[in-house]
Amino acid sequence: MSHSSRNDSRPLVLIVDDYEDAREMYAEYLELSGFRVVEARNGLEAVEKALALRPAVILMDLSLPVMDGWEATRRLKGDARTRSIPVVLLTGHALDGSSSEAQYDAYVTKPCLPDDLVREVQRVLSTVSPAA
Amino acid sequence: VRLEAASSELAAQVNAATEELATQNELLRRQAIQLEQASAAKSQFLANMSHELRTPLNAILGYTNMLLQGVNGELASLQRRSLSRIDSNGRHLLEIINEILDITRIEAGRMPLHLSEFRLPELVQEVMAELDPIITRSKLAVSTALDVNLPPVTSDRQKVKQILVNLLSNALKFTHEGSVRVLASYEVAAATLNISVTDTGIGIDPIHQEKIWEDFQQVDSSPTRAYGGTGLGLSICRRLAAMLDGRISLKSASGQGSTFTLHLPRRTRRT
After folding, report:
1. Residue A97 CA: distances (Å) to CA of A101, B59, B114
2. Which of A3, A73, B119, B184 has the most beta carbons within 10 angstroms of its beta carbon?
3. B85-119, pLDDT tens digit by residue?
4. Torsion of CA A64, A70, A71, A74, to 10 degrees
5. A79: closest CA among A103, A107, A108, A106?
């Protein structure tokens, strides 16, 4: 966004989805809602960008090329540098409670309207830093 | 000698018949396996298809919603109306896809049971809250009367809720005036909770009372029918109730309203 500056205090969201239309839709709405957004197309890119940029929250689709969302989340949660970043899974199916394949902080089921997703991001961020 | 000949002929006949039977059995066994595989393949196909359909639908519903919120500028009233129709039809399509996915998962034995102990009054409150916007719009007298001695239930809470939401929204949909009542009682001898939804709506003629439990069927399933919906709701409810070792019964007559009752065992056994 043109008005972003070096010491921008708006929280940074990393959105990971290989489906361009969904990724850009959520990115556009998150920016309208006062977030900065970076995008990743697969799990590996997500891990690299998370390490480099330390976003405030990560939105992670599960079925991704190169490295799927479960594996990327496992790596993020297994790395001391990224462990504390909340991960919200975006899934096509409802997760049943037994899906303990990786630690995660929340999940939303797609289809998910952009404003519902933003509400979830705000909720997750408020539990991490009550001041936000 | 004749007796001996007859006896050996009989033995040969029995042998031949036994062999024939064994061949037939083997054939049937193979056919059963093939049928099972075909059915599993069909379920897998439908499950994948539902998933594939939801991905583009997510973008359709999302962008429509953003436009309706005015993120790309204020809308003229005709634009708003057109977008609202895209939105409501998209939601309807999503509902159909979700219901097909539900049926597929039940049929494939891939709908997991999550048993827990819970209390019915709280659940009924949640169901009422979920349908509150529709209840308010309906202008019907909607009431609940739950026995005070209802024991805690061990069952799949989410599935019981799905059944009750469905029965109540059906009652609201097919009732134009009068009331909808939700009653719950406990039958000690059968260890069964009976949760009924009674309406003063259009009712169902006895000759149609079998049909409504079938997939994609309503009393009127014609393209010009007066009531929306997929015709999958009750067939899903019937399957879910069976998963919970329960069943749903119906008492109704045309023009006399309907009572749908979920008979739910106090404890669903893990299978």
Report:
1. 10, 27, 9
2. A73
3. 999 889 888 888 888 888 887 877 778 888 999 99
4. 150
5. A103
Sort out which chain B residues have CB atoms less than 8 A from A91's CB and list them. none
CB atoms within 10 A of CB B1: 5
In the numeric block, the tokens 């599993």 are attached to B40
Please answer yes or no on whether A26 and B59 come within 8 Å at the CB atom: no
Q: Render pLDDT for B36-56 as a digit per residue (tens, 0 to 9).
A: 888 878 877 877 787 788 889
A21 with A114: CB under 8 angstroms? no
Q: If you search the block for the tokens 């939601």, which residue do you land on?
A: B91
Is pLDDT of A106 > 50?
yes
| pTM for this entry | 0.70
Partner B contacted by A116 (CB < 8 A): no
ipTM over 0.95: no
Q: A116 vs chain B: nearest CA distance in angstroms? A: 10
